TrEMBL record:
Its cofactor is pyridoxal 5'-phosphate. Binds 1 pyridoxal phosphate per subunit. Keywords: Amino-acid biosynthesis, Aminotransferase, Arginine biosynthesis, Cytoplasm, Pyridoxal phosphate, Transferase. CDD domains: OAT_like. This is Acetylornithine aminotransferase. N(2)-acetyl-L-ornithine binds at residues 157, 296. It is found in: Cytoplasm. Pathway: Amino-acid biosynthesis; L-arginine biosynthesis; N(2)-acetyl-L-ornithine from L-glutamate: step 4/4. Its EC number is 2.6.1.11. May also have succinyldiaminopimelate aminotransferase activity, thus carrying out the corresponding step in lysine biosynthesis. The keyword Transferase applies.
Amino acid sequence: MSVAAFAATFLNEVYTVSTEVTRATFNEVMVPNYAPSEIIPVRGEGSRVWDKEDKEYIDFAGGIAVTALGHSHPTLVNIMREQAGQIWHLSNVLTNEPALRLAKKLTEKTFADRAFFANSGAEANEAAFKLVRRYAFDHFSPEKNEIIAFNKSFHGRTLFTVSVGGQAKYKEGFEPTPAGINHCDYNDIEQLKAIISDKTCAVVMEPIQGEGGVIPADKEFAQQVRDLCDQHNALLVFDEVQSGVGRTGTLYAYEQLGVTPDVLTTAKALGNGFPVSAMLATEKVANSMVAGTHGSTYGGNPMACAIAEGVIDIVDTPEILSGIQERHDLFKSELNNLNEKYNIFQEVRGMGLLIGAELIDSFAGKAGGFVSAAEKEGLFILVAGPNVLRFAPSLIIPKEDITEGFARLEKAVIQAIENTAAA
């Protein structure tokens, strides 16, 4: 029997005796750091998902801004199949063609000259934060090690990245955390001027704060941050883990701000759900990360990079990018229509298809209730903190899915309002 025939027989036998699992299984076997919904999705196509009971949902969440090309995109499925039949993993003792092709495309399409690949946004940010300190160590002194970030920012869940992130709740119980990190308010240049110094090695910012409430940077603020970094020989790091790969209407959001960073991190949509991330940097800065200073066992593996290359090829086209603003306008129009009927939002904001709707004070802290009500109506949405509903759908979500999704959201809003009044 050939190897292929043996494998087919083996897999057939294994999967005919599959283990039955339910939502209760989560409570029995998983670490309780998540509190997932009661449903278990089992398949998806485009912007629609079906659960174990075959109930259909429209996806306005995109796996938290990840599935930019929807579920089971046929081109990406074919790329995965083709690469699976060639080579999956090599380690970075060797390089591979998909990684080199992806790095070439990312550097050609951005300000960057060099790429480092990892598996998640947190890992890309960890690499970036190490790099900026190493660069300052190489070019200035060990004392130039301070990183400045912004309140309400989010940069990942590792100990270093939660320390740079501007939300104290993520550090609670994990102290002592890395030192040499300061924070100030986003979009407040005077606060930044008051704390930046010649000991600052980098300023880290999101072009649009995602987890912090879907808050875009003021263009003038971003330009002043760049100027301050230059004055103090500090690097500017843009965390585009959530805003990158077309999410805001350009391949990366920095293009809309008229500001070029020294380092950029990207993940989430880069693999459309397959784990992959990248840290991009100028050659001058990247040269500080010499052999032995950092690494990743899985980072840059052929499978991840082949898929990411396919995502970039599809997203960075006029037809995809031009459709994002049109969908943005449709989302905002539908949200404003809901607000005219039910008076629930104090502000609708965002860029491209990263949109936040901040609830009025009488619904403060109730965003989760709207998410739960939406799910019951067959719709996935997100929160960005306790007061903001967040929408991050596929960049190619069909307009009929948007219309149907908002019909479901209206029913959810009515239910959430009733639930709040009854509480």
